């Protein structure tokens, strides 16, 4: 067995990564708002969408991650360049399928309790608890045993050697909660459900599993999370002060933060859905930062004397999905014909205002092990027609493409519709509200749909295994695709520790995917946030799309 000691203070693995997601007369910002934004340590950030939940285990959306990143610390930290560093764990030692973590001492939760290994165990037990029903449980389910050695040492045992574990433990949904608030939340759920099971009995039942636990789990499921949503208890540099649903969330500086001083006193996240309203607030000083700038407004923000854009390559890949088992999309000639008929450059220049990169394969250049040697999918109508002539439907066919209800998605779908008409493929566009669209896509009844995947950990395992491994059919693998050869390379990349071996495995996996084309990649995302430089300095943007504020200062 080869032993690998990873001191997170000395981590040199760099994941070159990137990331995610959406106008109007506007009153000028009130004078008081401008003074608040600039007033000595009070930062206001404009958000296009409201956070779904401050509970790390309830949602996996970027607006929620913006706030949770400030409230909760993770065991592993990733900086704005996505380099690993010390989080609540100061070191890892990997020995095959075991990971030994040394935990940071003298760390305090917002509620005043001390951080120990019990909080780590309680957090991971909770995210994998079926009562919680977490959509991110898959990120941690390979951990099959947790052993507390002492207050500041803990050992994880995984089902198999799982090399990407540090990147999963750096994800915002891996934020560590206090055991006190977890216990309080479960007790509240038991009380609300009218259960006669005690908290200790519940934990024992969960450990044992079986019918009795399943019955209690179903009974309390709708009540779990109520307390944590109201008072999220982390060790981060900010803690919750106030939440006004639909309007704003105010976080305040945590005076006992273990990671050094911060310049801000409060950080307010204001929900301003309209692009033009957010832009006006940025220019007049109502907000210091906006988490999203419409591509058409980029030049306006850059040219304004008080505002600028912070650019970042993203981790996202936007694609068109096919139903791999449904005629005629079970024919690789049809999939290849469609892939070559789509003019990606027209999409990038005509719809995205050049805020995107032509996709070569299924993970972006910012993700570790991206295969840069592959060629872009060329727009070639003659080649597309040749593939159609060899297909089971040489004269074309009628089909439907689903997309969510943004103007940008509609415009991209119109380009695809026009392109495919050259092949005799008559495409009907159906748009749905985003939540309804995702629910429909998950059912696997589509012809085609357009969506985006963000490799938020920066590791190719997250970008490829949930989307294309046979075991993921019915979840992230919405196109019913299965290839045993691909599975073997994805498993090799997941379980091999050497960088060169992982790069080789994932390079082959990407080649297989571009040959099979269960989905065809369109473009990689580019990110940009707006900043008012007269109000705030030191703002960063990471490839996930999180506004980084740890180095924020305020101009005199």
TrEMBL record:
One of its GO terms (cellular component) is periplasmic space. It comes from the Bacteria. Residues 1-18 form the signal peptide. SUPFAM superfamilies: Periplasmic binding protein-like II. Belongs to the bacterial solute-binding protein 5 family. GO terms for molecular function: peptide transmembrane transporter activity. The keyword Zinc does not apply. Keywords: Signal, Transport. One of its GO terms (biological process) is peptide transport. The lineage of its organism: Bacteria, Bacillati, Bacillota, Bacilli, Bacillales. This is Peptide/nickel transport system substrate-binding protein. The keyword Amino-acid biosynthesis does not apply. Residues 86-472 form the Solute-binding protein family domain. PANTHER family: OLIGOPEPTIDE-BINDING PROTEIN APPA, PERIPLASMIC BINDING COMPONENT OF ABC TRANSPORTER. It comes from Jeotgalicoccus halotolerans.
């Amino acid at each position: 067995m080869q032993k690998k000691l990873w001191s997170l203070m000395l981590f040199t693995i760099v994941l070159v990564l990137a990331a995610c997601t959406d106008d109007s007369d506007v009153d000028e910002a009130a004078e008081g708002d401008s003074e608040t934004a600039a007033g000595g340590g009070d930062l206001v950030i404009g958000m296009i969408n409201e956070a779904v939940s401050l509970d790390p285990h309830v949602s996996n959306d970027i607006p929620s991650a913006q706030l949770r990143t400030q409230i909760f610390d993770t065991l592993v930290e990733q900086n704005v360049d996505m380099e690993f560093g010390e989080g609540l764990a100061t070191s890892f030692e990997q020995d095959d399928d075991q990971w030994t973590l040394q935990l940071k001492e003298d760390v305090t939760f917002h509620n005043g309790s001390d951080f120990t290994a019990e909080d780590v165990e309680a957090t991971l037990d909770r995210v994998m608890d079926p009562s919680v029903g977490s959509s991110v449980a898959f990120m941690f389910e390979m951990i099959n045993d947790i052993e507390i050695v002492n207050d500041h040492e803990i050992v994880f045992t995984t089902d198999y050697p799982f090399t990407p574990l540090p990147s999963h433990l750096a994800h915002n949904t891996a934020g560590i909660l206090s055991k006190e608030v977890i216990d309080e939340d479960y007790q509240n759920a038991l009380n609300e459900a009218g259960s006669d099971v005690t908290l200790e009995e519940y934990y024992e039942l969960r450990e044992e599993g079986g019918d009795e636990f399943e019955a209690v789990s179903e009974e309390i499921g709708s009540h779990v999370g109520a307390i944590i949503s109201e008072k999220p208890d982390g060790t981060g540099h900010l803690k919750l002060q106030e939440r006004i649903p639909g309007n704003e969330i105010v976080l305040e500086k945590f005076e006992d933060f273990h990671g050094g001083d911060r310049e801000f006193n409060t950080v307010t996240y204001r929900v301003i859905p309209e692009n033009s309203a957010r832009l006006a607030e940025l220019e007049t000083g109502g907000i210091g930062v906006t988490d999203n700038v419409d591509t058409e407004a980029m030049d306006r923000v850059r040219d304004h004397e008080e505002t600028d854009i912070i650019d970042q390559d993203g981790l996202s890949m936007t694609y068109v999905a096919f139903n791999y088992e449904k005629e005629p999309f079970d024919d690789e000639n049809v999939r290849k014909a469609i892939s070559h008929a789509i003019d990606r450059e027209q999409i990038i220049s005509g719809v995205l205002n050049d805020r995107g990169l032509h996709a070569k394969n299924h993970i972006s250049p910012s993700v570790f092990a991206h295969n840069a040697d592959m060629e872009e999918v060329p727009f070639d109508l003659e080649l597309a027609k040749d593939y159609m002539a060899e297909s089971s439907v040489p004269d074309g066919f009628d089909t439907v493409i689903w997309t969510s209800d943004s103007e940008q998605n509609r415009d991209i779908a119109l380009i695809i519709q026009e392109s495919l008409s050259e092949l005799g493929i008559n495409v009907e566009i159906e748009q749905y509200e985003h939540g309804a669209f995702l629910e429909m896509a998950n059912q696997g009844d589509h012809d085609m749909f357009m969506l985006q995947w963000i490799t938020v950990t920066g590791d190719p395992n997250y970008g490829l295994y949930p989307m294309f491994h046979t075991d993921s059919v019915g979840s992230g693998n919405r196109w019913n695709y299965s290839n045993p050869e691909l599975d073997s390379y994805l498993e090799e990349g997941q379980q091999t520790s050497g960088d060169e071996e992982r790069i080789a495995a994932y390079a082959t996996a990407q080649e297989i995917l571009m040959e099979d084309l269960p989905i065809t990649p369109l473009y990689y995302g580019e990110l940009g946030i707006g900043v008012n430089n007269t109000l705030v300095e030191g703002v960063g943007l990471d490839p996930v799309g999180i506004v980084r504020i740890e180095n924020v200062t305020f101009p005199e």
